[in-house]
Amino acid sequence: MLNSLDISLAGRDLLRISDLVPAEAEAILDLAVELREQPKQPLLPGATLGLYFSKHSTRTRVSFSAGIAQLGGVAIALSPEELQISRGESLPDTARALSRYLDVIAVRTHAHAELEEWGEWATIPVINALTADEHPCQALADALTIRDRVGSLEGVRVAWVGDGSNVLVSLAALGELLGYEVVAASPAGFEAPGVETVRDPREAAAGADVVVTDTWISMGQEDERDERLRALEPYRLDDALLALASPDAFVLHCLPAHPGEEATADVLYGPRSAIWDEAENRLHVQKALLALLLGAR
Ligand code: CP
Ligand code: NVA
């Protein structure tokens, strides 16, 4: 267990996984486990968390809201359509004003550059709640789910099949910090930047300890639906592909899932699926993240 002298997340932003060093990522996972065992520790009495979400969300929105409440604080939903920003107030002015009311803000938006603007202008910690480029909170929950099941992360083989999405980018970047290896299989033109990618999904899945996939049509890609379904069809995670993985291998999916597209219903809801534990771990890692960014630990 690390002590507070080893890490200094207080006051920082989490925009990309590369904002973290290994000890910080480990500290988030360790505190998440502690908070999972003792969920009602009021580490952040009176803290205010803004949720500025320009895209749909079920898990991220609710796990952040429930999490800050369990820590003794409150979440404030900030739908862009209800703010003056949708009538032309600038992002810098919005961020500066909100920083006078809130202690921390989670932002879900399309362009990563917009999130970086929030980081530049807000004077409070800014958390990436998903952009087109990265989904770091998801990766932290996925790493915790793997660590829970395998017992450690060092040397674990993670196979990704399908679209080279924002989730894959963060999962692979976190693997570089925590010692697990990610091999992705994606079709040409759908590779994630900076991630080791093969073409054949069977090559990625062979002997893997964990097999992960994501929707073939991420938010903002709806116009590319037909082209994406065509290209990604051979990358569906089904029982035959999963049979190539290690006998103890399990399946992760960030959700929402589209049974019959990126994964079959048999796989998603079968005995080797860890998707509900994975979804639950969003709550625990984000509570840990909030406590560390706000200096409560
Ligand atoms: N996995 C995830 O981020 O889910 P939501 O889009 O429902 O928040
Ligand atoms: N890649 C998906 C993840 C959803 C949680 C998207 O960006 O829509």
For this entry, give a set of tags.
alpha/beta, 9 strands, Rossmann fold, 4-stranded parallel β-sheet, binds norvaline, 297 residues, globular, 2 domains, 5-stranded parallel β-sheet, single chain, binds phosphoric acid mono(formamide)ester
What does the average pLDDT come to?
Answer: 97
Helix content percent band: 25-40%
- Contiguous low-pLDDT stretches (5 residues minimum) are none
Amino-to-carboxy terminus distance = 13 Å
CATH superfamily (homologous) name of the largest domain:
Aspartate/ornithine carbamoyltransferase
Query: Which band does the percent of strand residues land in?
Result: 5-15%
Estimate the global geometry from the Cα principal axes: globular
Number of strands: 9
Task: Please outline the major beta sheet.
Answer: 5 strands, parallel
Radius of gyration from CA coordinates: 19 Å
> What is the strand arrangement across the widest sheet?
7-6-5-8-9
How many helices does DSSP assign?
Answer: 11
Instruction: Please trace the helix and strand order, writing H or E for each element.
Output: HEHEHEHEHEHEEHEHHEHH
Number of domains: 2
Second CATH tier, the architecture of the largest domain? 3-Layer(aba) Sandwich
